[in-house]
Write a structure and sequence with these properties.
41% helix; globular; three-stranded antiparallel beta sheet; alpha+beta; yeast vps74-n-term truncation variant fold
Length: 271
């Protein structure tokens, strides 16, 4: 099966370029945890339910040597340097590297997507006086957006599949991976779906329904035919920490929107 080889942050940039850099940092952190590039521990088990920033510690995960993209590497570099950091320490050290979440979004996500041919730059003039740069989706970008949106829009059928066709439900989740976070389901819904599927373990045949994944499947999880043989790399319990990253890096003087506007008609945006 083909992979679009996109992270949730990259997909969000493609389908909703106006989304905030803070959202993209948050999605990248949880994606790195799910892929086991990052590992998150709590120092004091008695405070587990409090989700305190003081007892949340990042360490290098078992899949840390897989190929990293610029927006992933800038986060992982801190762990390669310090080996472990508490969440607040991680935030502070990251803030020294990145002046704002807008810089993270533009330099480490958008610009590499330009290099890959998903966006193109166009120079324009404002009142024939002030030049500015516009970023527009290319044909490749529009195709990727269409394929991503096709899968995300299919999420409206997931609850029905959970009742009537567990194989289809599991196949759908297998091609979405951590991109399930870009749908309208909340964390508790996602955990519920995963819990049901983990108990019943239905047979599923992903190629019967889909011919591509959005993301890159971690090594060792595909069989000899390119089919996903395990969903175990998605440690859904880690989603309990998702909201802990809300204020990981907030641009000062800039309101932060927590709502993802997936359906956008605007195909260009200004730097």
């Amino acid at each position: 099966m083909e992979s679009l080889d996109l992270t949730p942050a990259e997909s969000l940039m493609i389908i909703s370029p106006s989304a905030g850099g803070d959202e993209m940092i948050k999605f990248t952190l949880i994606d790195l945890l799910l892929k086991k590039s990052l590992k998150l521990n709590t120092e004091d088990k008695s405070h587990f339910l409090k989700r305190s920033h003081d007892n949340m510690v990042f360490r290098v995960g078992e899949q840390s040597k897989i190929s990293l993209k610029p927006h992933e590497e800038i986060l992982m570099e801190l762990l390669f340097e310090y080996r472990e950091l508490k969440l607040n320490e991680f935030k502070n050290e990251f803030a020294k590297k990145i002046k704002s979440s807008t810089e993270y979004k533009n330099k480490y996500i958008r610009d590499p997507l330009v290099e890959k041919g998903y966006f193109e730059r166009q120079r324009k003039m404002l009142l024939a006086l002030a030049p500015y740069t516009v970023y527009i989706l290319t044909d490749s970008g529009l195709e990727a957006k269409s394929r991503i949106m096709e899968l995300l829009d299919a999420a409206e059928n997931l609850e029905k599949w959970m009742r009537e066709d567990l194989g289809r439900a599991r196949s759908y989740l297998s091609v979405l991976g951590s991109h399930i976070l870009l749908t309208n389901y909340d964390i508790e819904d996602i955990k519920k779906f995963n819990r049901i599927l983990s108990y019943l373990k239905p047979e599923f045949n992903t190629p019967k329904y889909y011919d591509y994944y959005i993301y890159t499947v971690p090594p060792g999880y595909l069989d000899d035919y390119g089919n996903l043989k395990s969903l175990n790399f998605l440690d859904i319990s880690l989603l309990d920490y998702f909201n802990s990253f809300d204020d990981f890096l907030v641009d000062k003087n800039m309101p932060v929107s927590r709502k993802i506007e997936r359906r956008t008609k605007n195909k260009e945006f200004i730097q």
